[in-house]
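Session log. Operator J.P. requested a structure for one protein chain; no other inputs attached. Running the standard single-chain path with token output.
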Amino acid sequence: MMHAMNRTLLSRLKVVVADDAYMAALTAGMLRNLGVRSIVEANDVSSTWAALKREPLGLLLIDDGLGPVDALTLVRELRADASSPNRHMPVLMTFSHAEKARILAARDAGVTEFLKKPLSANVIGLRLMQTLENPRPFVEAGAYVGPDRRRREADTKGPDRRKRGSPEQQAG
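Structure written below.
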């Protein structure tokens, strides 16, 4: 069970759930039970893009099988769009079939975390809190733009090129 501080954090979170209509509604219901109050359901890539361009949001929960354009293409474009207010937002991707090559491709596209279906409210809540309470630095290095792919600190034998937080946080 989540403590009050976490429910407060979740109640302020704005989430886009991008999946087929049935799964988006089911996932949105689980998020509401966790305390998330602002949820946009999107059932294809174009409605997901519309939601992402409308306002700053807190998190994208997107299914790997979302179409008709590949979900990884959407994530790559989101990360590459320097003018997007949601470029730095955490992206959680759900998978019905979690093949290693596809997960690595998602990681390299800029996905923050992964969830294997079937989902439960408890698993979603734990992953949300892990993502929100322990954000990874945002990186722009060569062709890669997204959260730091390393899960542990490593000596890179050079200067740290990771960007900390959003551009507004860096400027202030």
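Operator note: Strands lie at 14-18, 38-42, 59-63, 91-95, 113-116, 138-141, 144-147, 162-163.
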